[in-house]
Protein: Anaphase-promoting complex subunit 4 WD40 domain-containing protein
Organism: Dictyostelium firmibasis
Amino acid sequence: MEFDQIIKLIQLKFENNVYLIIIPIVLLIVTISFIISSFKKPTINTTPSPSPTTSSSLNKKNKKKNPSPPLQSTATTITTKLNQQKQYTDTPIPSPTPTTINNTIASPNPISISQPTIQENKLFFKVFRGGDIIECIKFSEDGKYLSFCGTERSIRMYLFDSLINLKIPQSFNLQLPFDNATCISWGNKTLYATLNESQKLVSYNILDQKSLQTGKSYEEGFSVNLETKSKIKSICSSSQSPYILTCSGDDTILKIFNLKGQIIQTLNNGQIKNYMAAMTQCGRFFAIASFSSEVKIYECIKKKDGSVSECKRVMSLTGYKTCIYSIDFSKDGMKIITSSKDSSIRLWNLNVNYKLEVDPECTYSITSEIGVIELIAISPDCTVFAGVNQTTNVIGFFNLSNGNLIDSVNLGNNHAKVNSIAWSPDSKYLISGGNDKLLYIWSNPKKL
Ligand SMILES: *[C@@H]1O[C@H](CO)[C@@H](O)[C@H](O)[C@H]1NC(C)=O
Ligand SMILES: *[C@@H]1O[C@H](CO)[C@@H](O)[C@H](O)[C@H]1NC(C)=O
Ligand SMILES: *[C@@H]1O[C@H](CO)[C@@H](O)[C@H](O)[C@H]1NC(C)=O
Ligand SMILES: *[C@@H]1O[C@H](CO)[C@@H](O)[C@H](O)[C@H]1NC(C)=O
Ligand SMILES: *[C@@H]1O[C@H](CO)[C@@H](O)[C@H](O)[C@H]1NC(C)=O
Ligand SMILES: CC(=O)N[C@H]1CO[C@H](CO)[C@@H](O)[C@@H]1O
């Protein structure tokens, strides 16, 4: 039945009380359109700016443009934000000034935020940036910095709050010496990175906001040779952990460094190929996903002075028949989730008496509804986990308590291969990034 037919019907029923009908309908339409508009990214200006429309749409697209000023910005606030950003940028990224004032930006390095185009309710927004492929995304534990690296000569740092709330986010880059970073990880106000060509482990002390405003945002720390030719798959650290763990892929070597960058221990996981390592927040345990069907869990013993004396294998997750692609610990370290080549996802309870050689119990094993999951991450609030199928580029959000799929998004083409995902520490957002060089910021479907 057509809409106007319905109206007619209602009108017939109520005879002359037309206004009684029209007013509620108008109210309904207004409410619906309000609901629809509230699904869109809040910072995007929906109210038309007093200047010509090109200006407002240009501002939108230019939000991420680094030091080059938004062309038509009439608003003075934009300028202030730009100045702010300049202070946060150690070395401004030279970006050619766009020559058009159209919606499409002529610059080859567009850095901007777009309105949602896919799965509108879940995509909070996406960030177009001037960089290349994104390999690794990590949040600082306090959620202040969103950092990522990839095929570029710098590690990018966004002040996450400004990325979510401001038109011009505050950011700076950590410059890398003729190299690209493959993995990054946060410690106590320190960022650790592994470099691709020089095979080094490097550290950067991230200076606080006050120092940022004086222009200096970081200091270089140590730089040590990893002494491996194999590609580093993971680096693990935390503000509480007295060590940094690196996990290399082909030679299956795990290296444990103290926070000064001195090697403490070298371990061979001996499982043909390592896919990744994960560590508990406090650093007491770490686990390795590998080509073998067994996940080995190691414990690191602390000495009285807080440093690490030794890490040794204490538990195993067994029962799989295929290789394990990805693992993640819950924030409290009591659970671990695993995803394997046979499309199964298993949650394990680690709260067992492993000293009596009791192995962790499998809480559930489910078959993933989105196929094989190669990246898995539990939300910090321990309610959902996200999983990525890197062939279809589907990101699924699952209920952690039973493994049910809550929601999914599909990036759907091979150029968009997702290489990394990271939860914001408040569990509100999942960030993904990969071969399409974009950062996607997804809303946690449980928090919508
Ligand atoms: C910009 O807009 C003008 C007029 O609308 C059009 O002639 C021109 O081709 C556009 N330029 C680009 C790069 O889209
Ligand atoms: C690392 O180096 C290899 C070649 O040595 C290259 O194929 C790969 O793209 C590089 N990765 C990054 C992130 O630069
Ligand atoms: C982090 O470092 C600061 C000093 O730089 C220290 O006061 C603080 O206790 C450290 N936090 C942790 C969790 O180790
Ligand atoms: C992703 O999912 C599809 C469909 O379930 C499956 O065919 C594919 O094998 C999965 N990806 C990988 C890497 O296995
Ligand atoms: C997750 O599952 C639990 C237990 O079945 C249920 O109580 C909860 O509502 C579910 N959460 C979501 C977001 O589906
Ligand atoms: C070793 C090295 O620097 N590799 C690449 C890092 O990324 C840039 C792109 O920004 C490439 O040009 C380099 O070749």
Remarks:
- The CA atoms of residues 184 and 193 lie 4 Å apart.
- The radius of gyration is 25 Å.
- Residues 135, 150-151, 180, 182, 196-197 surround 2-acetamido-2-deoxy-beta-D-glucopyranose (ligand 2) (CB under 6 Å).
- Confidence is low (pLDDT under 50) at residues 1-16, 39-121.
